[in-house]
Specification:
With 180 residues, the chain is an alpha+beta fold. It has one domain: Gcn5-related N-acetyltransferase (GNAT) (Aminopeptidase, 3-Layer(aba) Sandwich). 31% of the residues lie in helices and 28% in strands. It has an 8-stranded mixed β-sheet, with helices on one face. The protein is globular and about 40 Å long. It starts with a strand and ends with a strand. 32% of the residues are buried.
Length: 180
């Protein structure tokens, strides 16, 4: 069982099949109950679902240990009061045969620019690189996506190449390797 991660301000709760199902089916009350926090006003929505879950619910349910490997919901926990979901950090499945895991992240609009993504990605990188089968973690983003690039730079990832996105053009690829 994957445990939650804690950062200075966030609780990073592992995604489960039940949570993914609640989000994909638009069952907000169930999703909030499962994560123990309020969801943002615009979440879940079709745009989030299409970006966060590239596999079908059936494929996720068939192999959750692969499809949801390391995926977590970012919950801001104020010193007093109710927690609220501010985003998510996901991996594109288990690491490949070369030990490379790919990470992605998103923060809901009203919580952007507050450092949540940096905090969550940093914790998730440490978690992933702590697994013996993981040699490196990569992230891909567009050159024009300055907020994403800032997160990548702050967590110490370095540019290692590029690849094409099927419709939007060139993606820059960054990486953080396991240290000896």
């Amino acid at each position: 069982m994957t445990l939650p991660l804690r950062t200075h301000r966030l609780l990073l709760v592992p995604m489960t099949v039940a949570l993914v199902e609640a989000v994909m089916r638009g069952r907000r009350d169930d999703a909030e109950r499962l994560v123990g926090a309020r969801m943002p006003a615009r979440w879940p929505n079709r745009e989030l679902i299409e970006r966060a879950f590239t596999a079908s619910l059936e494929a996720i349910a068939e192999k959750p240990e692969v499809r949801l490997w390391g995926d977590r919901v970012m919950i801001f926990q104020p010193p007093s009061g109710e927690g609220r979901v501010v985003g998510s950090v996901v991996f594109h499945g288990r690491p490949d045969d070369d030990g490379v895991a790919e990470i992605a992240y998103g923060v809901e609009e009203s919580s952007q620019g507050l450092g949540y993504a940096t905090e969550a990605v940093e914790a998730s990188l440490s978690w992933a690189l702590g697994h013996p089968q993981v040699q490196s973690v990569q992230a891909a983003t567009f050159a024009w996506h300055r907020p994403s690039l800032r997160v990548i730079e702050k967590v110490g990832m370095v540019h290692v190449g590029a690849r094409d996105h099927e419709t939007l053009g060139e993606l820059l690829v960054y990486e953080k390797r396991r240290t000896a």
